[in-house]
Amino acid sequence: MPDDDQSLSEQRAQGATLVHAPPQPLTLRINGAEHHLTIEPRVTLLDALREVLGLTGTKKGCDRGQCGACTVLVDGQRINSCLTLAMMHDGREITTVEGLGEQGQPHPIQQAFMDCDGFQCGYCTPGQVCSAVALLDEVKARQASMLTEGDQLAPGALSEDEIRERMSGNLCRCGAYPNIVKAIHSVVLRQA
Ligand code: FES
Ligand code: FES
């Protein structure tokens, strides 16, 4: 089967007209506010946040689902915003790092990152923080990870290895992992 580039050149050689889908209206609900946009269907959620709405707290690392820098919450669940189209989230509740804390009153996870020195460059931190916030809800719901024995996480059974496994989609190239794990564990223990 020819790859996409080959198909494209073949289409061009045959004089085919490339069709671009026209911009479409959509409503993104982000951090409690509604944004009415008209954008091309091919725009990713990450680009809509950063380039269209100026919400640059969410970072673009790899742009291909490998680093977790672009993690945001959609209806409370963490996703890589570089791997999904904005159009797919019309009307859903999106939370970015800008929506997690209040001025002067950070989210407990944000405070723990500061207390435990859980970041260095800060580039991956918004994604780490969003991911950790979703992790708290997953733990409350006793969702299992790859490491959990059985179908559900037992109350109080979130080990540091479990945190590492659950945060494994978020990379930190400067190696702040021990402090990130410590920060998340401190919040989990306080909320237990
Ligand atoms: S930018 Fe989305 S996972 Fe790396
Ligand atoms: S603190 Fe961002 S890559 Fe390490």
Automatic annotation (TrEMBL):
Domain named 2Fe-2S ferredoxin-type is located at: 24-100
Keywords for this entry? Answer: Iron, Metal-binding, Oxidoreductase
Region: Disordered, residue numbers: 1-21
Superkingdom is Bacteria
One matching Pfam family:
Fer2
Q: Which Gene3D superfamilies match?
A: 3.10.20.30, [2Fe-2S]-binding domain
Question: What InterPro entries does its record include?
Answer: 2Fe-2S-bd (IPR002888), 2Fe-2S-bd_dom_sf (IPR036884), 2Fe-2S_ferredoxin-like_sf (IPR036010), 2Fe-2S_ferredoxin-type (IPR001041), 2Fe2S_fd_BS (IPR006058), Aldehyde_Oxdr_Iron-Sulfur (IPR052914), Beta-grasp_dom_sf (IPR012675)
Q: Which SUPFAM superfamilies match?
A: 2Fe-2S ferredoxin-like (SSF54292), CO dehydrogenase ISP C-domain like (SSF47741)
Protein name, entry field: 2Fe-2S iron-sulfur cluster-binding protein
